[in-house]
Each structure stands twice: as C-alpha cells, then as structure tokens.
Amino acid sequence: MDRTRVIDPRDLELEEWSQGSLYGGLDVRLGALLGLRNLGIAYSEVAPGKSGCPFHNHHVEDELFVILEGEGTYRIGHERIPVRAGHVLGAPAGGPDTAHQLINTGSVPLRYLSISTKAATEICEYPDSGKFLAKTIDPETGKYRFNQMVSEGDSIDYWHGEPGA
C-alpha cells in the first residue's frame, strides 16, 4: 500500500465536531495517512474557551502534545499549567495523577499535534465523571472489536452470560 510520507495538516479536510458548551474542535488523524501502525497522530484546532476532550488518563498508552499555535491551560493531575506555542507536553500512562486535558484559554484557536503509542487494548479513566472506557482494536483493520464505556458502580457478575455458569 503506497502511503504519503509528508503531510501538511493545513492541506487536509478537518472534521468539525462539538459536544455541549465546553467541548469541540476540528481534527484530522494523521497516523494512518502516513502509514504508521503503532503510533497515533492527530492535528487539532480548538476554539477559545473550548477543550478537545474530557479530563482523562490512559492506563496503557503514553501521549505527547506539541503546541503549534495559541495558548491554553494544561490540566494534569491536580495541576493547571499555562502552555503556549512551542511547548511539548507529556501525559504518561498511569492513574488519576496523569489525567490530562488541554483547554484553550487564549483568544485565537489552539493548534496542536497529539502523538500517542497505540495499544491494541486500553483502559481510559475519566476522574471528573467516574467513567471508564475499555477498548480493544483489531491491529489489522484498526477497527474496534470492543469499545465500552461504564460508570463506577455499574458492574455485572464475572460469570454473567457465560454458558453453563
């Protein structure tokens, strides 16, 4: 399969999305376009006052953000750190102390790259809302085999649905 090896995100069609009053942006995933199988890369633009994702942490995947333009607040663990163009931010896999979120606190769009390891199986935790996301991705197709969000307290017995149990 022939893949492009050099991409300028400004030349790509960005997907616009929004959720409620805090979340929204323009995004494009670059990893597959570059032929990368084990590295996720996305280019994002987030409007002033918005965030591109809820406060969350990964239990398996490491993430890195490169701020290209604008300024914002990097919420990581219990800290809130001002960030601007040129800053590189790390979000290692771990527990709630590595939960992270970028919020555009500036007056122009916050533009950044998100780079992450890609695990076939991942657990994400959302400390603000008490949710967990469990997902498994087929490494050949890149499509979800399992993608389930659950809340703390919502549980089923280990043997639920097992034949003969």
What are the salient characteristics of this protein?
165 residues, mainly beta, Jelly Rolls, 6-stranded antiparallel sheet, 4-stranded antiparallel sheet, 13 strands, 48% strand
Describe what this molecule looks like in 3D.
It is globular, with a radius of gyration of 17 Å. It starts with 14 loop residues before the first strand and ends in a 14-residue tail after the last strand. Strands 1-2-3-10-5-8 form a six-stranded antiparallel β-sheet, with no helix packed on it. A four-stranded antiparallel β-sheet has the order 4-11-12-13, with no helix packed on it. The protein has strands spanning 15-19, 23-29, 39-46, 57-58, 63-69, 71-76, 79-84, 88-91, 100-104, 110-117, 121-126, 131-137, 144-151. 19% of the residues are buried. It has a domain at 14-119: Jelly Rolls (Sandwich). The protein is an all-beta fold and 165 residues long. This is Putative cupin superfamily protein. Residues 44-115 form the Cupin type-2 domain. Pfam families: Cupin_2.
